[in-house]
Amino acid sequence: MRKTGSRATRKTPRREDQRIVQQALVDPTITRSMIRADVGVAIVPQTIYRHLAEANLKSKHPFRALPLTLEHRKLRLQWCQARSMWNDTDWQKVVFSNESRFVLGTDDNRVRVWRRPDVRYNSPTLFYVTLPAQLV
């Protein structure tokens, strides 16, 4: 049992803690295992996560934005208006796809970024999705 006020010994000095945070700020897509390999000290990923959380950096999926111009919006509105009077028979000819992802393992291979809550729409934590011309 620990004495009151005692803490676990630090695995990284303050300079390494700052370096961990700096790495996440320079490259938001860096992973904890990459940071861990760079630090060179045997620390668990939870320690890295804690240091980044202390700097108010959270691991999030990058915000994905469709680059919709005014022209894109007009075309989409026209497409919807042309099909507003369709009945069930017309809609049965359309194929809808379900894009849900199910992961059975531990890693979904998705890109994650380290960012502060107030920088959601700032680059480089913003990824633009490009669609084929026939879908736009």
From TrEMBL:
**Which part of the chain is the Transposase Tc1-like domain?**
17-82
Looking at the record's lineage, which domain of life comes first?
Eukaryota
Q: Which InterPro entries match?
A: RNaseH_sf (IPR036397), Transposase_Tc1-like (IPR002492)
In its UniProt record, a GO molecular function of this protein is: DNA binding
A biological process term (GO) from this entry:
DNA integration
- Residue ranges annotated as transmembrane are none
Report the protein name in the record: Transposable element Tc1 transposase
Organism, by scientific name, is Trichonephila clavipes (Golden silk orbweaver)
Q: Which gene encodes it?
A: tc1a_547
